[in-house]
Amino acid sequence: MAAVRFFQIFSKGRARLFLSLNHLLAAFVSSNGAIFKDQPHSNNTPRSAKQIWVHKYIYLENVSFKNKLIIFVIGVFLIVSLDLMTKAWAEKNFVREVTDAYKTPLAAGEYLVSFVNDERIYAIKEVAVIDHFWSFTYTRNYNIGFSLLSFLERYFAREKISYAFIFLQGMAVCLLIGYFVLTRMGRYVPFVLIIGGGIANVLDRSYRGYVVDFVKWYWEGSPIAILNPWPLFNVADVGISLGICLFILSLLVE
Is 100 a catalytic residue? Predict the structure, then answer.
């Protein structure tokens, strides 16, 4: 009897749970009751000119959900494609290879590639785009954007660091995509840029074991150390940084 009673209680609880989930799903798809919809201005407070601009050009408020989804896929594809193509271009044009790597110790800026006949690769001389400000070079980033957390290499092997960042960045991208969908793509442009850049770096790190950075900005003679030079970065980092800036801007305007 106790087992039968337990089964009855369990069945009723499960039915109530499914009913609650059904109500949540109905509220999500309903145009009048989208509980996850990002509606910073749900009240009747008039919007300022800045808020109108943000909602029109950053949130794409007047664009339908279907069209937002299409633009999202295209935008992420373009960011990922541009990032991976420029990284491949950098590796092809700004790296030289020298065989017999074990004959002499590695110098600064050199990388040992044991899976390609023990070759030594290193960046060639920088190619200036704008003198004293912008140049192209090459480096391998086993950490996160702008070579942050580089101190971890003193305590852990690079392979372990790469695996850890692949997992963490992959989880972060999945969470961002989930939040983006649940909010019905409310803060649109920032999330497209951040997700696109995140996917690009995850793919690059998964394929190579590291992320290629090749854009170098610097202010020659600057008294600010971080500007001489600024940590090397890539197209994906630009997308992520720009997305974060737009996200903060939208919060400030709201």
Answer: no
Question: Is residue 213 annotated as a catalytic residue, yes or no?
Answer: yes
Residue pLDDT, tens place only, 206-249: 888 888 888 888 877 777 766 677 778 899 999 999 999 999 99
Say which residues have a Cβ less than 8 Å from residue 42's Cβ, sequence separation at least 6. Answer: none
Q: Please list the residues that pair with 96 across neighbouring strands.
A: 122
**φ and ψ of 119, to 5 deg:** -90, 150
- The pLDDT, as a whole number, for residue 192 is 92
Instruction: Determine contact, residues 190/244, Cβ cutoff 8 Å.
Output: yes
Do residues 229 and 213 make contact, with C-beta atoms less than 8 angstroms apart?
A: no
Of the listed 38, 83, 100, 213, which one is catalytic? 213
How many angstroms separate the CA atoms of 218 and 231, rounded? 9
